[in-house]
Specification:
mainly alpha; 3 helices
Length: 71
């Protein structure tokens, strides 16, 4: 994929993530992160809105790990 195609794919995934349920967002996270890694590997900078979406997904993943933890 070209960098332009990767950016379009990342933006498309971001749009899906923003409107999806929590479970679907977390299902899309691995592909979204992979696309962002490919963009970085191509030497391009990842736009801030995509980085923020990735961070929000990572935060959700961490938080989900603690949901079933006994207190």
């Amino acid at each position: 994929m070209t960098t332009e195609q990767l950016m379009k794919r990342a933006c498309h995934l971001e749009k899906q993530i923003r409107t999806a349920s929590e479970v679907t967002r977390l299902d899309l996270q691995p592909e979204f992160s992979r696309v962002l890694r490919h963009i970085k590997a191509a030497g391009e900078s990842v736009p801030g809105h995509l980085r923020r979406t990735e961070q929000a997904l990572n935060d959700e993943l961490v938080e989900r790990q603690f949901d079933n933890m006994p207190v």
